[in-house]
Amino acid sequence: MAAEFSQRDLEGERACIERQLREAAARAAEGEQIRENHQRFEELERVLPSVSESLVLCARLVEHDADITRFSSELAAAMAARDSAAAAVADLRGRATACEGRAQNAGRETERLRERIDRDRRSLALADEVATLERKLRDIPTDLDVRLAAAEQSVREYGEQQRAAGERRSAAAGLLKAAEKRRRDFDSVTIGAECSRCGQPVSEEHARRERAELDDEVQCHRTERDATTHDETTATAALTAATTERDQLANVVRERNRVRDRFHDQRGVLAAQGICADAAVLRAEIEEHTRQAEGFDRAAADARGEKQEAEAAAAGQEATREQADARVATLTLRLTTATTRQATDAGRMDTLLDLLPSAWRDRVPAMTDADLHRELTDLDQLRTSDIRAQFLKLTEDATRRNEWGLRLTALDSAIEQVPTEARCSVPSAESLLKTTGERLASAKADHQSALGRNEQFRGHAERRRTLDEQHRALDLDCRLHDELADLLGAQRLQRDLVRTAEREIVRYANDTVRNLSRGDLTIELDDADDGPDRAFALRVRRAENPTPIGVVFLSGSQKFRVAVAVALAIGRFASRQARPLESVIIDEGFGSLDRDGLQAMGDELRNLQQCHSLRRLILVSHQEEFVARFPVGYRLEPGDGGTTAVRFRRECGAEV
């Protein structure tokens, strides 16, 4: 049994060697084709990855071209929309400024009319007062002074009568007092005493007679006193009545004088102001001015309404412009990214083409996906046919053929030594060999298929790894671009830099414009930091008016001062004072000025040179009257050989 298996093994090995010899003979017959297929397999295996990547890059370059064309078109449209929105914003802001100007003008006219109305009302009050005073003067009697003089005369007369009556009363009272004293004294005289009146001795009869006479005398003096007292009382009453009348007339005279003085004073005020004293005319003027003021109020309200509408529309257009700016920035970034990717892919494409053989280098630009698929199919077929193993076997056949011949001889000798009863029949050995060969071929086919799939998976994995790396790099670049665009965009660093520059320039400009205007003008930025962005929007304040006004509302000389100050400030800011300004050139900046303006500008320019210590102030002008104000210059004169510069100098107003 062991001999049978040994003989069967030997026969199987001999059949295998014979089969290998037949295969080697077949390969030798197909040697040229195997070599060509192996060369093609090696070439395809070497170039197809680069060709495949090149075709992908070609497709991406086409996509990049389409993206660049599309982004360029969209960018142009977005820029046009942005410019249109910016123009609309400028127009609407101009309209708003014009409406503001109209509203301010109407407000000034209203204020002027209100002041005129107030003045006319005050004048009307004066006119009414003058008319009232005039009526009062007409109501006062014209003979008031005569009556006052008569009343004063009566007071003086009644005063004299009162003093005379008083004196008479005093004298009568004195006499009465003396008589009463004598009567009392006589009552104490005794009978037989010497009489003080006649010197005779006093008797009863004499005493009775003297007492009667003294009583009569006392009664007479008392009657006289009462009469004089009555006269004095009557004179006093008359004096009081005359004094009262005089005082009343004096009060009326004083009131008349006050009214007359007030009348003349107020009428003088009206005359000095050149105002009509007619109240009816003044009332008509007040009504007319009131109607005009109401009309200007309505015009100002309409202008403010139009301004608000224009500002609202400008805000809408500003939002549109900002959206367009954002769109432009996005499209610019996309266009830049697409251009960068195109350049990167084009560089990679050139690198891959340089690695390819010249024949493939010429073919790749014209290849299609179908061509690549055919080449990949050929590569898969060659790989499936195990062309590399065939070529290896073909190269080994010459050496191994001798080994197989020697082994075959040895096997024949070994088979001859096997006993006859232990030998296996040739058909049985061939059948076994065939079955074994089929199983070996099936195993090799499975092995080659697995190797092919493994190579495909390795290719896919390598491509996936490459694409992942590219995606990560591109994603990082995209994030970096987005972050840089946000940091360096119009709303971040650019805006901060522009705002900082504007503030510095305005600060420098104010140093100059205050000197040029002798402290009358001050420049400031029109927009707030958080307001709508406008490049270098300025407004100006006057010393006598704290309300800022736009530059467009300045006079020609004021605009010139502001323009020169801003130009010098920009120069100072640009140089950062690394080197101070030494020269200024002004080319034809005086065409809009009249004679007075030219004279003022000449003074301002000399002041400018002194304020900034300029070594040179160069002016270009065609106005001889203006040029004549400067001592040194060059006159350009045309000649046969071209334009000639002729230097001139003026001394005492004469050119030398």
TrEMBL record:
Feature: compositional bias, Basic and acidic residues: 300-310
Region (Disordered) residue spans: 300-323
Leader sequence residues: none
Domain of life, source organism: Bacteria
Protein name in the entry: Exonuclease SbcC
Annotated InterPro entries: P-loop_NTPase
